[in-house]
Amino acid sequence: MVIGVPREVKSDEYRVSLTPAGAEVLTRAGHTVYVEAGAGLGTNIADDEYAAHGATVLATATEVWQRSRLIVKVKEPVESEFRHIRAEHTLFTYFHFAANEPLTREMVDRRCVCIAYETIQEEDGTLPLLTPMSEVAGRMAIQEGAKYLERPEEGRGILLSGVPGVPPASIVILGGGVVGLNAAKIAAGIGALVTILDVNLDRLRYLDDVMPQNVFTLYSNPVNLRMALREADLLIGAVLIRGDRAPVLVTREMLSLMKPGAVIVDVAVDQGGCVETIHATTHGDPTYVVDSIVHYGVANMPGAVAGTSTYALTNVTLPYLKQLADFGWQDACARNSTLCKGLNIVEGKVTFQPIADLFALPCTAPETLLQEPAT
Asked: pTM score, two decimals?
């Protein structure tokens, strides 16, 4: 298989989809790896390192896309990349189609195969390729929230930990999954008062067992949510429905319950967000204010800490990438039901039901498009 690693061109995205170690694994298995010059610079990986581990460095993105069949990326293709995409391409990346109808329809029209990191799912329900970036984003949510609570950033001027004689900040986390758990870990360690809301009582029991004394759990319903919003200095949106649009839990009307200068960090923004007033922002221009509430909506938070997140991501993507390279997408997905759940669009057909439902498109069961695994 010929594998292409283009440089990420989404605004302020510094991650790269393959490390030199990954290139060595793939080339030793007999595959060809093309890497666009400069693709690893945001993670401090020089072109020479790729070359030393078996990859071939090409000068332009056009060359990488033209010569490759399997394209591995970090983020969804942006408009400037659409012209490169052909029907024979298999794209392996984060897509987050639920928040982007134009991208969905473009990929349908391009008739390529789109395998989304975020919908690959183990039998136990875990999302192995989403988990490490959710861990990063959850931890980052607290440090970003702390920054934008500062008065020069239009926040309340609150120190998360407080000081002797002055109480700490109140942090409210919507969702007790991977993002929520990691946000709570950092917030609790700083010394803030943390409240986690979720509808899964088993998850709340688990969190109640493992979290320290300054973390409280609360069943999520409209009454409890409104009560929590009144106390929140920092609100973290950490709600996830696999591959679907995040439910809107906080309406614009509810912002009036919050303290002026409170901060919202909606980690769910890449799936549309769980706050009605959130929209995607960039690291270069991360916040805006609505009704005296600071909104942070960066959709690729882990991209800012590429030195950590590139390696965390590629640790989990490489085994699946190797299967796709070894067997091709049809055979690999037939062999591995976990990988098969990543199929979102195949040759002009939507194969993931939530996306089809959101955009009123027909859905084709992915299993009907697979071939029998070779023996």
From this structure: 0.92
